[in-house]
Amino acid sequence: RNIDVSGLKANDNNQTIIDIKASDLEENTPISIKGIAKNSGPIILNVVNNNDDPITGTVNVNSKIQLIYTDGTTRSNHETEDFSDAHILWNFGQSTEVNVNDPFQGSVLAPKADISVGQNLDGNIIGNSVTINAESHRWDFQQGDTPSKPSAPVTPSKPSAPVTPSKPSAPVTRQANRARQ
Questions:
Q1: Domain of 105?
Q2: d(CA 62, CA 74)
Q3: Is 83 part of any domain?
Q4: Cα–Cα distance list, 33 to 1, 20, 38, 42, 156 (Å)
């Protein structure tokens, strides 16, 4: 299963926002997020129910999350000090419980949830309570730069009327002084 973000347009805050059903995360098959630019703005995945409403209740994440960048490289779960490509945020909304049962990549935002991590997770974790029974790797979420509004276009000034060149005067003939011998 793939989520291709390469053709999606970011909003005015340079964020790409995608809804993903909790039932998709609960399946026992990997999910690849592909087409990620390493210098992109945030990619926010809102976890929703089958009616596309913010999720409430329990989410059991059984899908391994794989990231594939525009240059074809993949990111595996690992320790790092380079957070420049940490643009993935999983928003679990009003969920009260999140259980991560497969390797997971991206920061987790679930402020009302009790979160249990049973497999490697790379990213920040924000929850009501967090229990980690596996490796957790720091991969600090990067908001990215908010694009600035372009300045107003400058209207070029109107050029002045062309000047008609004057007619050249007749050439002046000079006689050279000849040395007498």
A1: 2-137
A2: 20
A3: yes
A4: 9, 12, 13, 13, 46
The full DSSP string for 8-22 is PPP-TTS-EEEEEEH
Q: How far apart are CA 125 and CA 88, in angstroms?
A: 12
Q: What is the pLDDT of residues 34-72, one digit of tens each?
A: 998 877 888 999 999 988 888 889 999 999 999 988 888
Tokens of 4: 């291709």
Please work out, in degrees rounded to the nearest 5, the angle formed at the alpha carbon of residue 6 by the alpha carbons of 2 and 12: 120
Residues forming beta bridges with residue 75, ordered by sequence position? 67
Place of tokens 């967090």: 130
Which pTM value belongs to this model?
A: 0.73
* Number of domains comprising the chain: 1
* Count, residues in the chain: 181
Q: Is residue 70 part of a domain?
A: yes
The angle at the Cα of 97, spanning 143 to 89, to the nearest 5 degrees, equals: 15
Query: Does residue 23 sit in helix, strand or coil?
Result: helix
Encoding tokens for residue 130? 């967090």
